[in-house]
TrEMBL record:
Phylogenetic lineage: Eukaryota, Metazoa, Chordata, Craniata, Vertebrata
Native source organism of the sequence: Camelus ferus (Wild bactrian camel)
Record protein name field: Probable cystatin-15
Subcellular location per the Swiss-Prot or TrEMBL entry: Secreted
GO molecular function annotation: cysteine-type endopeptidase inhibitor activity
Keyword Cell inner membrane belongs to the record: no
Record has Calcium as a keyword: no
Length: 149
């Protein structure tokens, strides 16, 4: 007969280890992930109190929750010279000089891309001055009407 304690302990450790991998890396170029990034940037612009629009500068982490269509992403957004509701914000230049700002955000977006439905589950943003990395002591940037932020 096998001793029960080592087998149970091994299964417990394996279960905790495997269960902690809720999100897995995905390609930044997949269609569903790209759609979630666009939604997150749009939502940021709609709920951020700044009168200027922000656009995507780069994507850091890109992950999907196992067995779901929930995506986790780290995005860096830059403040443009265009107002929020101007046309063609994607081609709008970034502000330079004293008005230059970047924002580092982590978004969790749940998606049902086959019916084009997206829900922002959580977001956390830090505003940075200039193009540098966020300050560790920077306060989180408030977004209006965002559950969990």
């Amino acid at each position: 007969m096998f001793p029960r304690e080592p087998v149970l302990l091994g299964l417990l450790v394996l279960g905790l280890h495997v269960g902690s991998w809720d999100f897995e890396d995905v390609s930044k170029s997949t269609n569903f992930f790209s759609m979630c990034v666009e939604f997150a940037v749009f939502h940021f612009n709609e709920h951020h109190p700044d009168e200027y629009a922000y656009k995507l500068m780069w994507v850091g982490r890109s992950q999907r929750k196992k067995l779901s269509w929930t995506y986790l992403m780290d995005l860096k957004l830059g403040r443009t010279i265009c107002r929020k509701h101007d046309e063609d914000i994607d081609n709008c230049p970034l502000q330079e000089g004293p008005g230059e700002k970047t924002v580092s955000c982590t978004f969790v977006v749940d998606s049902q891309p086959w019916i084009t439905q997206f829900t922002l589950v959580n977001s956390t943003c830090q505003q940075n001055q200039g193009k540098g990395p966020p300050s560790p002591a920077a306060d989180p940037l408030p977004l209006d009407d965002v559950p969990g932020s």
